[in-house]
# Entry
Amino acid sequence: MSLFAIRQITILRISVILAFAVAALSTACSRPGQPQSSYLVYVSNEASGDLTVIDPDQPEAVATIALGKRPRGIHTFGNLLYVALSGSPFAPPGVDESTLPPADKSADGIGVVDLKQRKLVNKIDAGSDPEQFALSRDGKTLYASNEDISGLSIVDLGSGKLVTTLPVGEEPEGVTLSPDGRFVYVTCENDGIISVLDTAEAKVVKTIKVGRRPRSVEFLPDGSRAFVTNENDGTVSVIDAIRQEPLSTILLGEGIKPMGLVINKAGSKLYVSTGRSKKVFVLDTASNAITASFEVGQRPWGIALSPDEKLLFTANGPSNDVSIVDAASGTIIRKVKAGDRPWGVVTVPRD
# Structure
């Protein structure tokens, strides 16, 4: 066989190999991507007025949903997501509020987002300057804190009507429903108290003294105890939720600023975000002991667990991102950019 013929055969073989390689690559590229995660993460961005949608398996946010002014508190029920909106100007601690511009009361309300459409579909009146809120277990009633008027508004979600606004302590913020649905606990920052609402009677029936500048409340799943973060004391108050009396106080440390709370389904672990302290603390709820702490980002506030409790998510305001953390080790897996000043975070299973 001539040298020319050998070269021609060799070229033909290489061409066939390359063709198979291109075909294989094309097939691989045309295959569906990695399976989607079983849930999504939704983050309210206080300064940019929108909602960031994060797939925990992706390096970047997958969507942004326009909301309105100052979205903060956030919860879901079924295919709807509710988020507190406020037209009151930003007023960090120490700011002379007389120097601030007037509030845009038309912006106040609870925004309603259709998760399938990824669109704001309604805004419900929930009183003045709503910040945080709780939903009844049947999804029919909403309880919202009205920070600027020291009130708690009760909203009938079926009609979308504000039923009443009840007086509570000064600067109410955190709002949490007890697991049995009988009581709503409201943290009142200026007074250092919890105002306890009886949901059946629709009235405040008790006041519980806690620490300075209480922020959030979380109950054990059986409703026997509640935990309250006290920002200016660096502590977590433990409440006997049956007697509605203080039990003990957990000291997190000098200069620690506890903010948000989330508890696992078993009720054995309580995760505490600490704002300017940059950390998350893990508490054993049986012993009230600190079992771990780890740094997660700049001023973490909103905090949530994945449905399988393997991942922890924190909204980091100043750095405009969300930390995705391995809950077992406290190791940051990645950070995902959110909007301007992320505040609240919630995880929602996919359909």
Summary: Residues 8-12, 14-32 have pLDDT under 50 and may be disordered. The chain has one helix and 28 strands. The helical segments are 3-30. The first strand starts at residue 39 and ends at 45.
